[in-house]
């Protein structure tokens, strides 16, 4: 499902202008979700609208069972005012859930996919923690909703699957975002109103997974992968840890559970819906969903799916390498991936030759064993690629993170010291005083950090390169000695200006300085918020335009409060510059690079075309020309 296919079509249906490119209809209902103290609004919005799709219209079915279930749905909604929304108007209206094209019967019979995202349990964890009684109430509400959904799809004639899963867990305080097992583990439950697996298919799937596990672990690279990629079963020990005797022994042994990666849901859902796997997804289809082999004349479903999956992953790697000279893949990794894929393809051809022209051969034990071996090789290939790329890309280096934070703090301290000194003496004197200490401190910092980097790398704390260590040490050493040189100057201490509080007088200029400083600090702190990160472009534009507008108003004040002279001329220049900055900022806002989460409401323009990921030749040439046109100091 792509953003343009998830946009609501209701208005175009009512106006009889449904786009020709759309062969169906969509209903999108977002609800306010950022208030973690609100446990019910999102859930009530979802649960109140699900019956419109899952239950037949009252005029079509008035059975006692449907009436009772409809009443159960109503009881699940905690806020009665939710039913006052125009979506629940009986008559066709512009703001109702129905339209001229899609009536109540179509809502019930013609839907293909429903995505319902409940947030009550998540909010309850943030507000109260996982052990509060409110969690029990929210879980009971969700259990009842799942039961009603299962009842509805069991009555339906069309094959339907229900996926129930969480995107994360929570720690003992109800929070998440870390990497502890409690936070990164979540449940997955899949139900279908059609039989889609059997004891035999489950046994065959288990053999495929264990064979793939052996292939991965026997490889030197694969043996270093995270446990979730090497093994398909896992013991939920972090829950059994809560139940220990006085001597510290576990009161029960954690059961062994089947485990999958969340990234696998994308490929699984795509293939289940008959859609191609998204180009940049590196997950592996969940084998149990495709392992049924009721049709003896056709290729085993799991083998077909894993072969498609492997081809998609290989295509991604090939495109990535051909389009990026700095792809970062080692020759050994590329050779390993190609060898594993080619081995699987050779085995597949061997299987095809063994079957020959007689489809009945597929039931032969040695053929089925060969099918399982080939499927395991494709599965191991996709997991080997994912594990290798995870090691290359998803690495968090604590030493480099701390070095970056240290550089940021020391740089801010150096700027503050420079500002304080600039109020006491000229820039030439400051440079003469702190220049050489800054250079020598940078060199010393680079040498020390280079020496420490070998210790960090050998101990596994960091994967920094020599260049990383040199740059980090140079930056921190230079900033630190610069601050020390200025603060330790006995003739003009950095703090000598503090008693001179004239510069702290409340004036429009100082207020603007404080506001600018506060805005900068908030901008730095706001990176801890996902909502800010997703919409950083618009938020920063709004903040900068507000500050520049305030500056322009101060310039107007300076012009009006002074006659002809330097102050008036300065105010005029400041006003002109402020207006130019306002225009330029607004113009720059039309050049956009969109995050994946913004694509439904954002059109990329920076690269010249929405589907491009690199600049066109004429845009690159225009950038070179602009470098020469923009005046320099």
| Poorly predicted runs | none
The largest sheet is: 2 strands, antiparallel
Q: What does the radius of gyration come to? A: 32 Å
What is the percent of helical residues? 55-70%
User: What number is the mean pLDDT?
Assistant: 82
- Tell me the strand percentage band: under 5%
SS summary, helix count: 22
Overall geometric form: globular
Explain the overall architecture.
The two termini are 51 Å apart. The protein has helices at residues 10-14, 41-54, 64-76, 104-109, 120-128, 133-155, 181-184, 199-217, 227-230, 237-240, 264-272, 301-323, 331-355, 365-393, 398-422, 427-458, 466-487, 508-525, 530-534, 536-560, 566-588, 617-629, and strands spanning 161-165, 188-192, 233-235, 256-258. Helices cover 55% and strands 3% of the residues. The chain has a two-stranded antiparallel ribbon with strand order 1-2. Strands 3-4 form a two-stranded antiparallel ribbon. It is mostly helical. Helix 15 runs parallel beside helix 17. The mean pLDDT is 82. The longest helix has 32 residues, at 427-458. The chain is built from 22 helices and four strands.
């Amino acid at each position: 499902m792509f953003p343009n296919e998830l946009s609501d079509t209701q208005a175009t249906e009512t106006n009889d202008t449904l786009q020709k490119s759309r062969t169906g209809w969509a209903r999108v209902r977002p609800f306010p979700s950022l208030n973690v103290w609100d446990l019910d609004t999102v859930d009530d919005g979802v649960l109140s609208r699900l019956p419109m799709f899952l239950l037949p219209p009252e005029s079509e079915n008035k059975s006692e069972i449907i009436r009772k279930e409809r009443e159960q749905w109503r009881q699940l909604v905690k806020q009665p005012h939710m039913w006052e929304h125009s979506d629940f108007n009986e008559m066709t209206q512009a703001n109702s859930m129905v339209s001229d094209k899609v009536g109540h019967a179509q809502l019930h019979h013609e839907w293909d996919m429903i995505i319902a995202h409940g947030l009550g349990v998540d909010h309850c964890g943030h507000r109260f923690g996982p052990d509060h009684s409110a969690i029990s109430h929210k879980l009971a509400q969700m259990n009842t909703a799942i039961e009603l959904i299962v009842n509805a799809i069991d009555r339906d004639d069309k094959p339907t699957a229900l996926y129930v899963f969480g995107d994360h867990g929570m720690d003992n305080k109800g929070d998440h975002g870390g990497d502890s097992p409690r936070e990164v583990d979540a449940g997955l439950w899949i139900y279908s109103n059609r039989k889609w697996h059997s004891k035999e298919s489950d046994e065959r799937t288990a053999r495929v997974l264990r064979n793939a596990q052996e292939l991965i672990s026997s490889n030197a690279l694969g043996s270093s992968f995270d446990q979730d990629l090497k093994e398909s079963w896992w013991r939920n020990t972090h829950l059994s840890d809560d139940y220990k005797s006085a001597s510290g022994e576990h009161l029960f042994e954690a059961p062994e559970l089947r485990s999958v990666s969340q990234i696998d849901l994308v490929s699984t859902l795509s293939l289940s819906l008959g859609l191609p796997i998204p180009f940049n997804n590196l997950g592996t289809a969940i084998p149990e969903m495709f392992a049924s082999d009721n049709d003896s004349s056709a290729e085993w479903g799991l083998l077909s799916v894993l072969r498609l999956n492997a081809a998609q992953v290989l295509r991604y790697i090939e495109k990535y390498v051909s389009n990026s000279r700095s792809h970062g893949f080692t020759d050994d990794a590329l050779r390993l991936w190609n060898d594993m894929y080619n081995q699987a393809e050779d085995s597949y051809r061997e299987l095809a030759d063994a079957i020959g022209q007689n489809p009945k051969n597929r039931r032969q034990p040695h053929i089925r064993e060969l099918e399982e071996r080939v499927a395991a090789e494709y599965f191991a290939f996709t997991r080997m690629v994912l594990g290798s790329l995870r090691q290359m890309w998803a690495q968090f280096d604590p030493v480099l993170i701390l070095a970056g934070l240290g550089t940021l703090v020391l740089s801010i301290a150096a700027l503050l010291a420079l500002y304080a000194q600039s109020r006491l003496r000229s820039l030439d004197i400051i440079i003469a005083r702190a220049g050489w200490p800054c250079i020598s401190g940078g060199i010393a910092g680079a040498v020390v950090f280079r020496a420490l980097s070998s210790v960090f790398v050998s101990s596994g704390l960091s994967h920094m390169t020599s260049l990383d260590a040199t740059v980090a040490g140079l930056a921190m050493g230079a900033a630190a000695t610069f601050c020390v040189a200025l603060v330790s100057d006995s003739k003009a201490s950095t703090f000598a200006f503090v008693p001179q509080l004239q510069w702290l007088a409340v004036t429009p200029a100082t207020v603007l300085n404080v506001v600018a400083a506060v805005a900068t600090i908030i901008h730095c702190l706001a990176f801890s918020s996902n909502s800010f990160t997703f919409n950083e472009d618009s938020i920063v534009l709004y903040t900068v335009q507000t500050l520049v507008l305030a500056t322009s108003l101060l310039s107007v004040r300076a012009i009006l409060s002074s006659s002809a002279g330097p102050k008036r001329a300065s105010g005029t220049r400041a006003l002109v510059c402020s207006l130019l900055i306002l225009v330029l900022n607004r113009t720059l806002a039309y050049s956009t690079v969109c995050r994946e989460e913004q694509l439904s409401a954002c059109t990329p323009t920076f690269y010249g075309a929405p589907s491009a990921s690199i600049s066109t030749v004429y845009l690159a040439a225009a950038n070179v020309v602009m470098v020469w046109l923009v005046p320099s100091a």
